[in-house]
Amino acid sequence: MFLVRWISGWPLGLLHALGGLLGWLVWACSPTYRRRLRANAELAGVDARAQRRSIAEAGRIVAELPWLWLRADQQMLMGLVEWIDVEPLDQAIAERRPLVILTPHMGAFEVSARAYVTRYGARQPLTVLYRPARQKALREFQEAARKQPMMATAPANLAGVRQMLRALKRRETVGLLPDQVPPRGQGVWAPFFGREAYTMTLAVRLVQQTDANCFVLRSQRLPHGRGYRVYVTPLDSALLAGSDLAAQTAAATVMNTTMEKVILQDPGQYLWGYNRYKQPRAAETPETAAAATPPRAEASE
């Protein structure tokens, strides 16, 4: 923890430079990571140049965390973050609509939440879902570091889901990582870059139960520590489909399709080494799930 606090005082540009080296070190030391990164990226049609860039960017995600958690305040972020295509989000905030914010594992995804709070938190607070670390000391440090004014954290369990529902019913905002593999029973199999991936249904259910608007935020890391750009993409309203398995799968497919489009806007900043296609323990296979899913009825003309 002392080392993390010390590193947090380093210049952002230096942290990004060292993070790039860290990314390549991990890539060089782990054959499993290399195979997974290459396979996932090639499945999405990502060229070799973007793959190489993603290796360094993965290290930068880790290296910038001490700075982001312990040093970056709202005034500092205001000068480092540029918002792109933000008008629909501005309008939703002005209308006090409950909002579900989705942020894929790309770029400085932790910056997206901080940037949102800096711009909107005083008008519409944010609650973010997170998976607590197993080690007690690290878990306590994460909770303290992530605790910010107008930003609450909700653990990835039933209590956390209830906390997020209460926030939405107060017409506030919640944030999730939509491409994080959920535990068994909390997702459905849906295509992601042409391969079945176990996809969370929580975002869909939150939208359905609260009539929330849904947006994707992508935080692009700029070179040499110059800051970040946050891009805003509205999600398709098809998430308002029914609650049966076929409808949930269709809605998850819409969500994954939107993620694909967002990721391919800057594939060099996506975490292609993330094990997106793993099967949760005791979960049914995609083939079994497909066989058990009844076809959706066609709409009458």
Written account of the structure:
This protein has 301 residues and is of the alpha/beta class. It has a domain at 74-271. It has twelve helices and nine strands. The protein has helices at residues 2-7, 12-29, 31-43, 48-70, 74-80, 87-94, 109-120, 136-146, 158-169, 202-210, 245-263, 286-292; strands at 81-84, 99-102, 126-130, 151-155, 173-176, 187-192, 195-200, 213-221, 228-234. The strands form two sheets. It has a seven-stranded mixed sheet with strand order 1-9-8-2-5-3-4, with helices on both faces. Strand 8 and strand 9 (228-234) form a beta hairpin. Helix 5 crosses helix 7 and helix 9 runs parallel beside helix 10 (202-210). The relative contact order is 0.16.
Task: Summarize the structure in short.
With 301 residues, the protein is α/β, with parallel strands linked by helices. The protein is built from 12 helices and 9 strands.
